[in-house]
Amino acid sequence: MPEQGVYSDSFFAMGTRCDVVLPGVDEEFGEQVVQLVKDEMIQLEKQLSRFIPQSPISRLNRAAKGEWLYTSQTVWEILTICYDFFQVSNGVFDITLAPLINLWKTNRGGRQIPDDEIGRAKAICGFDKVEFDIEKQQLRFLSDGVEFDLGGIGKGFAIDTIKGVLLNQKIKNAIVNLGDSSVLALGQHPNGEDWPIGIRNAYSKDEYIHVFQVNNETVTTSGTVYNTEKNKRGVRQHIINPLSGKPIESPCSVSVKSDSATFGEFLATTWIILPEYDRKILSEKCRKVETLEINYKSESDFETRLTIL
Amino acid sequence: MENNRKNRRDFIKEMSLIASSTAFLSSIPWLNAFAGENGKNVAASDRVRLGIIGVGSRGRALLLNLQEVNNVDIVAVCDNYEPNYQRAIKLTNGKANAYYDYRKMLDKEKLDGVVIATPLHEHAHITIDSLNAGLHVFCEKSMARTLEDCKRMADTHKATGKILQIGHQRLFNPVYLNALERVKAGEIGQITQVRAYWHRNNDWRRPVPSPELERKINWRLYKEYSAGLMTELASHQLQVANWFIDKVPTRVMGSGSNSYWKHGREVYDQVALVYDYDNGTRCIYDSLTSNKHYGLEEQIMGDKGTIEPEVNRIYSESIPKAPGIRQLVNNIEKGVFDVIPIGGASWVPETAVEYKGEMIAEYANNDTFLQMVGFVKAVKVGKPYKNLFREGFHSSIGVLLGLQAMDNNEIVSWPEKYILEKEV
Q1: Domain hosting residue A101, numbered range
Q2: Same domain, A105 and A12
Q3: Which of A162, A230, B31, B417 is the most buried (most CB within 10 A)?
């Protein structure tokens, strides 16, 4: 087969590695496009990171209750989207769980967290403690200590933003990969009708559990299992069920194929937490979405379920 | 102190590990000082007798480091400024004979070598007198105030066969040595530019007890005694650039000014220079005294990576792709359509969450101590290390040619007579 040109580059931003693959694009243009993508991600990180003290999110996180607050257009946009997700998921998708996330981080090494500690952390969490004035684009905290953490949605939001950047540059076909968990597949593979994105078995990396046929869509994955470069595997207690205040402990993941990665991140996380009945209600509101659920019973045994909505 | 000594033995042990890489050893002859270092006591006759001339701030640091080196006796100290003279006696617990005049010291004492840390304009004649007196010399950088003096020092060093080691401690710094090894191994590709800077935010003025001492204490501010930022700071960094590029510059251009400090200082308070090398490589240098935000660095840039030795970082030009992406790119290039293994369990970075490069080497650094160890070893052997003096010479010449370029507003070519060929 003939050899084909492809420009690709990788960089670090938003706490992850970003790979960009641009088939049929020459080096000069490719470099420019990747620089635009990088700039966009750096800007987003400056806006959305709660670990950057000057970011608009950090400023909100430091604000006292009661005071009406303005924030940047980007932060406003993502907060209001998240608030919609919070409502539509009956409070399961909640970006104000930082106190619980921080608490469970201290659990590493097997420390038991007493119920009263969980209760105290839970009491200061809750998106319902935030009031939005949509008309004036302002918000206020109804109690002290509320903190936003966009870790569960930021990468998806970045993917959707990058999609706009690429389309502006008239890029038709591309892969953008943020840490393997948020992928944009624009257009198609040069030798195929779509991009075949393979979801692997977390415990056997050469085995595909499912392949999504993706064309102008995104694939996002949330889960408790993780891989590292050196093939270390493990279970992370980072997805918190806001109703119980406890993390999801079983090894599992949910991958979502959807038009929007912001929506994909929301759905993947929510799907993991939601009980069966509530999923049904939520799925009635979804269009053009595929979800793949994987529950690992052991390192060699797993169950999967593919839902096409 | 016991703990401190132990750490210092560790420094030497680290250096001996670096020295044990033989391929590297041949390009850095002074590392031989550390090869097979065992630190055991030796016979009294093997002890090295040193005198220290100039015990100001730098001289004091050298003295304290020398006191930690095995088999060294500091038998004489010399300073013609009373407070430093008294301090030198105190620092040596009165064991060293103290002098106001170095010539008397050279006459009276039976020394193996001297360590010179006087103001710059006094380096040349003290060094030359000491070499001619049959002594080995460690002289602080920069070598001398004038090109002619540098040359005379080099000529005397050659004629007497005695050691003349110039105080460029980075030559003994494990991070720099490791960085150089990685450069030689091709890790950052071909070096095409070194961008170096030293930025401070202070006027360099030292308090003066009485007005007649102004020029003696604040010698760094007066052209008669110092070339300012060039000899005091740039010399270190030009040495690094020459060492890593492994060449002597062919010419220099530059511009200097007094832009901020209006206090009678004669030397420039900021400088900017470009040094050219014969292969088109360049060292771009600047130094500033009114802003310290960027501090100091030598950014050594190659087509495959960058080294910043001051902060101990090495950066690659290409960040490794996710394995699945690597496979995808290969497939597209070959026209193959296959599943892309990138979805699924999220990839968790093991170290970097943003690309801040990697550490060059993990060392507890004490290069000033290590260079004194190197000097003492050389004195014991009685022979200079090949090519070590060359580093100090070219750096000293380079900064003075840079000054000439700025003073005369001209592009200055590097005269042949100021080039020392590499010894093989």
Answers
A1: 56-141
A2: no
A3: A162
The DSSP call for residue B201 is B
Cβ neighbours of A230 in B, within 8 Å: 350
**Cβ–Cβ < 8 Å for B400, B231:** yes
Nearest to B322 among A17, A189, A221 (CB): A17
> How many CB pairs (< 8 A) connect A and B?
149
B332/A202 touch (CB, cutoff 8 Å), yes or no: no
**Residue range B259-310, pLDDT digits in tens:** 999 888 999 999 999 999 999 999 999 999 999 999 999 999 999 999 999 9
Q: Do A195 and B321 touch (CB under 8 A)?
A: no
Chain B from 340 to 359: CB within 8 A of any A CB: 340-350, 352-355
Complex ipTM above 0.85? Answer: no
Find the mean pLDDT for residues A23-36: 92
CA distance A302 to A280: 23
Whether residues A94 and A183 fall in one domain: no
The DSSP code for B187 is T
Q: For chain A, what is the domain count?
A: 2
Predicted TM-score (pTM) of this structure? 0.74
Collect all residues with Cβ–Cβ distance below 8 Å to B171 and sequence separation of at least 6: B28, B30, B239, B243, B371, B388, B391
> Cβ of B344: how many Cβ atoms within 10 Å?
30
Name the minimum distance, in Å, from the CA of A17 to any CA of chain B. 8
Encode pLDDT of A220-272 as tens digits.
Answer: 999 888 766 566 677 777 889 998 999 888 899 999 999 999 999 999 999 99
Answer yes or no: is A289 within a domain.
yes
